[in-house]
Write a structure and sequence with these properties.
The protein is α+β, with helices and mostly antiparallel strands. The protein has 6 helices and 13 strands. The chain folds into 2 domains: 85 residues, no CATH class; 188 residues, Protein Transport Mog1p, Chain A, CATH 3.40.1000. The longest helix has 22 residues.
Length: 278
């Protein structure tokens, strides 16, 4: 089964933009499995590209592409390059159907949700494009504390999104996870951390399921302090790292619940559960 590569185009746009469309295939594969594998490989490739860059602050796109492709290959996916066509972001139909829009320098509105990031963040990317049957709108912010907030609004015109927990896997470890306080299972979040080379990274990611055809992906990442002293037996993080990631996780859990607080009522929950096939 063939699926469009969504995350690849999203990530490469942070560096240079997608010059062509890529298709990935795997025996027994589907869109949901590809989403999970691609997200994992995106994180790995980002770290590899940073380690190979001259400054360590801006990833090298060549190393990113190589690491991302090799990672998906290990997971059993093979790539097929499609003959380039007109850029989808220039398609009038796509532009006319903006999934989300910037309503001020730090607030966006889309899928009946209004989301505001802290005013200490600067917007670096605001772009909508189409990959296969999926329309994607991306907003990308950088904070003064070297953290990043990445938003992806996705509408799939043919396939459907299933309500899956936010995926975390090697080289990252799950710290904690949960659901939204008011939006219930529609908001699935996870906090994670990882040690890549000489760097430590922590992050919080979330899926917010608007409908079978619409979802919002949030990814927040920040450097994690290096260990001070030795970690206790059977524990990975040292005391100073534990304190930092605990504060980070609580901060962004609270923020996510503030952004996605309009959960459905009891009857609507039941109806939506039927629609999602839960």
């Amino acid at each position: 089964m063939k699926v469009n590569t969504l995350v690849f185009c999203i990530t490469v746009l942070l560096f240079a933009g997608c010059a062509h469309t890529e298709m990935w295939e795997k025996t027994g594969g589907n869109q949901q499995l590809f989403d999970i594998d691609s997200r994992e490989c995106e994180y790995i490739a980002n770290q590899v590209s940073l380690l190979q860059s001259e400054t360590g602050k801006k990833g090298d796109p060549a190393y990113f592409s190589k690491a991302y492709t090799e990672c998906l290959g290990v997971k059993g996916w093979s790539k097929k390059v499609v003959v380039p066509g007109p850029a989808k972001e220039d398609d009038p139909d796509t532009i006319a159907r903006q999934l989300a829009e910037l309503i001020n320098s730090n607030s966006i509105q889309g899928f009946k949700q209004t989301i505001t990031v802290p005013d200490t963040y600067t917007l670096l990317k605001n772009k909508q494009f189409q990959s296969g049957s999926t329309i994607i709108k991306q907003f990308f912010w950088k904070g003064e504390d070297s953290s990043f907030i990445n938003f992806f609004f996705q509408e799939n015109l043919s396939a459907t999104f299933k309500q899956l927990p936010y995926p975390v896997s090697e080289p990252y470890r799950l710290y904690t996870s949960g659901e939204g306080e008011k939006s219930r299972e529609r908001l699935q979040w996870a906090t994670f951390y990882g040690n890549i080379g000489s760097d430590w990274v922590m992050g919080t990611g979330a899926y917010y399921y608007v409908s079978k055809k619409e979802r919002i992906i949030v990814a927040i990442t920040k450097p994690l302090a290096h260990p001070l002293g030795t970690a206790p037996n059977n524990v990975t993080l040292t005391r100073n790292q534990f304190s930092e990631i605990e504060q980070f996780s609580e901060q962004w859990q609270t923020w996510l619940n503030q952004q996605f607080q309009k959960g459905p009522g009891g009857m609507k929950q039941f109806i939506e559960a039927l629609k999602f096939g839960l």
